[in-house]
Specification:
The complex is a heterodimer of chains A (206) and B (249).
Chain A: H1 2-13, H2 31-38, H3 51-54, E1 57-63, E2 66-71, H4 81-93, E3 102-106, H5 119-127, E4 130-131, E5 136-138, H6 150-156, E6 160-162, E7 176-180, E8 188-193, E9 199-203
Parallel strand pairs in A: 2-3, 4-9
Antiparallel strand pairs in A: 1-2, 5-6, 7-8, 8-9
Chain B: H1 3-24, H2 32-59, H3 66-71, H4 82-85, H5 91-112, H6 118-146, H7 150-167, H8 175-182, H9 189-206, H10 228-243
Helix pairs in contact in B: 1-2, 2-6, 5-6, 5-7, 5-9
Classes of the chains: A alpha/beta (206), B mainly alpha (249).
Chain lengths: 206, 249
Amino acid sequence: MSDRVSDRVSDRVGGPVDVAALPDVATLPDEEELWAAAATVPDPEMPPLTIADLGILRSVSRDADTAVVTITPTYSGCPAVDMIEAGVVEAVSALGVDAGRIRVERVLAPAWTTDWITEDGRRKLAESGISPPRPLLIGEPAGEMPKGEVAVALTAGLPRRPMGDITCPRCGSGSVVELSHFSSTACKSLYRCESCREPFDHVKEL
Amino acid sequence: MTPLLTYVLRLADDNLIVAQRLGELIASMPDLEEDIAVANIGLDHLGQARNFYHYASELDPDGRDEDQFAMERSEREFLNATLVEQPNGDFAQTQVRQFLLDAYQVPLYGAMTASADERLAAIAAKAVKEARYHLERSSAWVVRLGDGTPESFERVSRAVDYLWPYAGDLFHADDVEVELAESGVAVDPATIRPTFNATVAAIFATANLTVPDEAYVRSGGRTGFHTEHLGHLLPEMQSLYRAHPGATW
């Protein structure tokens, strides 16, 4: 086993291997470098954004000789999580850390919210033709709710609700209609702009 | 099984079985938007199921993993409420089944976010956001069908009458849930029943539908006594795994 590790290190540095020189905790990149590497991983479903832009990347740390990267899924059933994990391992490996010493942990709490998408992330979404989620306001819904949403108000109290209006990411018009509750991915819904007539994706507030 | 493991499996099984039912509809819905919706809602439920199974595997003295819970148990070992195993039927039946489940899961998960069990609280905090969105959709469909044409009203009324006795199973608590609720871990379904009733009453009133009488409840799902439908669902869901146990992609 140790021979195999040595072989890999040998391949990487291209020279004779001194077992004592194998990377240990002292040679693990520091947390800043680990974060910077993990933060380059693109989101598989919205590749212009990184997992840091989306707020999926929660933390990095060093546990003895292992680099630990913590991520959180957007939705319980998000199918992209496995791919994100593979991306993180690849990005951190590129720093010279053996893949066996990289651990990606998933946490559910606190639950991901679209409020964690950074300003940079929102700008990139809009530039890609995707309407960014609106900020969420904590509080009770105000005014009259359309029918069908009565139940939601009754049961959940809608502790958070989006502020402002959805606008077309192409022409900026506020005259938009929702075509479908779900769109190309679970985290988006489909809209059409009534001004420029273009359909567009909107990242649902969560 | 410990009461906690039993409880976690009940939560997991509700979600897995309804996800399987919704999966059956992919590429069969009346339009593309509904097709995408049914796939995504199914995916949410599957994700919630996996979170619960993952926790269950840590609680299980036999160390079964997610796949073994889902694919190696037989009908009598599944602990889902009988509502979720009911067939898709027509479009109205699918939407009413979803609505009744959503109207239950929103207050369930909402209350569970305060559970003394941190894992359950974390899974619920994630799931409640998804459940709210599901409820918004299924409520809108129940209203649209009930307040629609005579044909749609007829069909949605039939679906309500058919599914109502099974919805009662969601609230059929036994000692497992009551005792876990006393220690602040589980949600006693009796405490969320008023919210469920209020949701149903509000939506049915808007949809011109009548809330059925509490005449008969088809309970038993929580202890593994199911309707004939689960026995047909499982072989299809499990066939690949049973033919190739332990296979991975």
